[in-house]
Amino acid sequence: MNRKYFLSSLISTGIGIPALSYLARAAAIFKAPVPPLIPPYLKPGDTIGITCPAGYITLEEIQPAVRILQSWGFNIRTGTTVGKRDFTFGGTDAERLQDLQSMLDASDIQAIMCGRGGYGCARIIDALDFSRFTEHPKWVIGFSDITVLHSHINRHYGIATLHSKMCNSFPDDLSAADKEVQDTILSIQQALTGMPMQYSAAADAKNRTGTASGILVGGNLSMLQSISGTDSEIDTIGKILFLEDAGEYLYSLDRMLGNLHRSHKLDSLAGLIIGGFNRIKPDDPGEEFGRTVYDMVLEKVKALPYPVCFNFPVGHQRNNYALKCGVMHQLSVQADKVELTEMR
Hints:
Layout: H1 3-12, H2 17-26, E1 47-51, H3 63-71, E2 75-78, H4 93-105, E3 111-114, H5 121-124, H6 131-135, E4 139-142, H7 147-157, E5 161-163, H8 179-192, E6 198-202, E7 210-220, H9 221-226, E8 240-246, H10 250-262, E9 271-278, H11 293-301, E10 308-309, E11 323-325, E12 328-333, E13 337-342
C-alpha cells in the first residue's frame, strides 16, 4: 500500500494523533534491520585493557578488578591514564584520548574496561578514530559516563558493547562479598565469554505489561540527554531502551525525560526499561516538585503502546548487572514477573 495513502486513510478513520505519530515514526522499524556486529567473545589468554576516558582512578584502586579478571584467565594491560589525574579527569583530554585510541587500535587487546565513570568521554569522542576498531571489534565495558561511547558506537557502527560495573566497583575479595555483588561481577565474565544472558526482575504495580523484542540500547539518562542533537545521539527506533541515573533532583529528571519525549526518542520504542534512579536530591523547602519517577515516565509514554517496567537491576547500585548493548533481546513484562532475555 502507498504509505502516504495509508496514513491518510488512518486520519480519515479517526485514529488519534499520538497513535498516528507513533505509527509514522515506527515505519522505519519495518525496514530490513542491519544485524548487530558482536565482537569475538573472550577466551583464557585474551587481554583486557584498562583505561580512564572519564574520571581518575589510582593504580592501587584497580587492583581488585585486576586480580579478579586475571583469575578468570585474562591478561591485563594497564593504560597510561591509570594513576594520572587532571583535577577530576584521568589525565588531560589529550592523554585520555591517546590512551583510549591506542587500545581501540591494538589488535592484541580483546576488550577495554573503563576504570570508572565520572565525566570526560564527551570531551574526546569527536577526536577518536574508530576505523581500526571497526576492522577488529572488541568489547568496550563500562556505564555512567561511558554511555557516550555505547551510544556513539551503536549509532555509527552497530557494534555491541557491554554496559556494566567498572574497576571501581570490584570488591577486594569476591568470595567474601554478598551474593548480589558476586552475581553482578560474575555477570561481566558470563557476558564477555559468550553466555546467553537472561535477567529477572520483581513485578511492580506500575509496570505496563506486554512482550517486545529489539536491540537493547540506553544507559545513563543525564548522558543521553547531554548528547542529544550531537553526532553521538542515541538511535531508539525499534529498540528496547533502558534508563538509569543517580544524584539528580526530581525536576531535573523530569526535564531530561521531557527532552527524550520532545525529541521523539520515546515514540517508536519496542519497550522501555527503567532501572535504578537513586540518591535523588531533596527538593528545596517550599519548592517541592510533587511527582515521582513513576509519574514522570508514565506521563511521557501514556499514549504509546509498548511494555514498560520499573526497578530493573541496572544503574548506580549494587545490583547493576552486565547488559549487552546493541544485541537483540526480548522483554517480557507480566503481572507477576519481568524477564529480559538475550536472543540468539
